[in-house]
Amino acid sequence: MKDFLLKISLYTAIILLITNCATTKNSDTITNLKKTSFSENAAIYLAKNKSERNIFFKDSDNETYWVDSIYNKMTSREKIGQLYMISVYSNKDSVHENEVKALIKKYKVGGLLFFQGGPMRQAKLTNEYQSKSDVPLFIAIDAEWGLSMRLDSTYRYPWNMTLGAIEDLSLIEKVGKNMGNENKRMGIHFNFAPVLDINTNPKNPIIGNRSFGEVKTNVSNKAIAYMKGVQGQGVFSTGKHFPGHGDTAADSHHTLPLLDFSLERIDLVELYPYKRIFDEGLVSVMVGHLEIPSLDPRKNLPSSASYNVVTHLLQKQLGFEGLIFTDGLAMKGATNFLGPGDLELAVILAGNDILLAPIDVPAGFEKLETAYKNGILTEERLAHSVKKILRYKYKAGLNTYKPVVLENLVQDINPSENEALHYKLYENAITVLKNEKEILPIKNLNQKIAYVKLGDDVNSTFVTTLKKYTEVTEVKNTNIDSLNRKLKNYNTVIIGFHKVNKTWDKQEFTATELVWLQEISKHNKVILDIFSKPYSLLPLTNFDDIEGLVVSYQNSDISQVVSAEVLFGAIEAKGKLPVSINKHFNVNDGLSTVKLNRLGFTAPENEGMNPLVLSKIDSIAKKAIDGKMTPGMQVLVARKGNVIFQKSYGHHTYDNTMKVSNSDLYDVASISKMISTLPNVMQLYDKNKVNLDTKLKKMVPVFAKTDKKNITFKDLLTHYAGLQAWIPFYKATLDADNKPLEKYYSKVPHTQFSTKVADHLYIRNDYHDTIMKIIANSPRSLKKEYKYSDFTFIILKEYLERKTKQPLEVLSQKNFYSSLGMNNTLYNPLTKLDKNHIVPSEIDNYFRHQVVQGYVHDMAAAMEGGVAGHAGIFSNAMDVAKMMQLFLQKGSYGNKRYFSEKTFDTFNTSYYAAVGVQRGLGFDKRIAEVGPTCACVSEASFGHTGFTGDIAWVDPETDLVYVFLSNRTYPEVTAEGNKLSKEKIREDIQKIIQEAIIK
Question: Measured between alpha carbons, how far is 726 from 860 in angstroms, rounded to an integer?
């Protein structure tokens, strides 16, 4: 209670002080206070003494000397010219450029405000214009969300409204730091940001997304962090639009907005961010064009022309001593009050230092000159602003001006770390507002999920990323009833509302979309994800039928990726709503969601990887393709649970007609052993159905009376059992011309010939038994040594199917692929996918006599109907990475445990390392020069390769997953042999990945 009374008494004292001081010249008066209620904006801030304020740019004797030396040499015209900052464009013709040069030469203008154009053009013009000026020019830009607000070929950061949802202020400061560096590199001294307006009016037509939110503490915290980042790089921040443009329904570009609030309200709300940021060292302020009767009762008087506002309130009462800019003097909020010349004089007399972007420089200049000669604009008043301007020119380093260096300019202002920061910003901003029955994150990937698009902007990145997690079907129809009938077939419907990523464009649901949203939600389990400003939700009167509600703020590629991650639990939701949505959702609403250990996506820097080093993979891929080692490939790198590199190169074939995409499927050959047969075997081991000493005769009866009967489970899986490498089973089924014999094959399926080998080729159903007998009776080496054999996994498939009484393809789908979201991993992909999405592996002229596309390349696996323990899986790099991540996480993925950590460790042990066998149980662990790796990975690493030109490898010590898929066997395996292997393409890429780790 004592603290409460103290706050009340302090607040009363502040109000009395403001009221008692409100008698100034020019008949300006400040009206008495009116009591109002301000809910969450009721916090009071007691400003520091000036001596306690933070100072970014300290004064010095050298500065004073320089300022005086320049000022004392100036004519009155040169002094007046310093007050001007004129509009400049880098996308206009030579006529405009010559006009600017003329203004610099004749009127000695002190600064330039750049608008639309490009970075290189602007930099060149900056150097050109600076060379024409006797006193170096201030260069300024409106770059609230980065240089891209004005310039092409530059980086676009999220809007302030998006940043307002982030609780981690260090990220906001990092945004400011990056922007400050980019501005500095461009020779820019002022960034006209941050916006300090508190957007308490959701219908505000000009501020909106430019504000950090509707609560003054949030706006202040974010603005201060932003300012610290910018000014920490030696660039000046400009807070705007004083005293506050947030609670208006009009745009000062087109009219004079009215803020008809009491002085109490303005002091408590609008001025709060300014008080706080002044104490933290803000350098400059922009005064808005606003009519505020409680601060100045004159009708239609813009605040920028009010002595009460600019001098009495801003400078005297709030103690601001930095530079003061007018808002743009071409805006109707100003020009409707006075014309050129009279307007400039009025705003200077009001206390502004810099005239921003006036319409008519000559007219204004003449008016100011006349006023100076007549003593209306005194030498004292002129010196106050001009010396202040010169002081800040010194602080900006303009006393030793250097031109903008053009070399590498575009690269320097677009560093790769921007993307890394962008990911972090959205990871912290995206906000979950509803989560009925914990619909988020989507845990069950066995369900049918539909996606419906609303809005008129792009959605491809969102849909693509959703599909990286599981099968998601985009459902469309022009009729809502027909659409709902289609949606009945799905368990969950994701509705994405995508609006164009432009600040001032309307981002509203159409009347039709509101009806559709209502109807879809009424009949389905719905997750609504809006890629637009939160105010888009205002027209919704009821959210009862929407189970999940996500605000993703903007429709950028990165927001779409991160939002999909939130939906599927790769990251948790952290954002807090920066504005209220009617009575449904309040400021700071935002639910946390569970993080599942699924793969996510981010920039390399966020996981300690150097993207410039990783980019060298491109040249290795090009070398392989140009050298005819493979027509194309997919490469994926994940670290610490996030995919940080995923690219596809080349084409399906050498005719270059179809490019490889990330979603295309490759025949992964022997990687099938590791991602299909092996995990199923590990589950049986985990359930104590088999152990390291289990004999083969017990596992598969056909071996009970052979010389292989006592092979142990451990020896079998470590390729230490003396089995043959392989047998070309198919040769015994061909005639003298290498054509399939009718005894074994049929061109059409029927009762005895229903096992499909390829197009128009079916093998006898009982030939599987023949293969098993051939293996059982094959010679076995009596010498105890390592010999890699396909027989191991052919045998294990037989064991699995006998033990579980289920086919291998069913086991893998049921036990792993379905719940892992490996919807692009399967045997015989032509049963599900179009052939154009499957990369061909060979033109077979020795067995099947056709292009092998969608059918397994391995001949023995083909004779097994495409499903074998050692080969047959088709997949893409993303899906393979999921299984590798499961191994890296020792049997857990998506917060589901598939087998114990102990079981994984058992299988990832080299039992015969002492005799040089670098094999685990099913895993390849060879890291020496003879192995498939770069010999730069740890001994704990493991993986497998595939005959068609593949590798999937995990290094637990560096928390890395590496997947490389190719079709090096296309069009045929030549006498030259495996050029991909000989040239160490996969190994060289792995070496680059290791080198990319930031130490």
Answer: 9
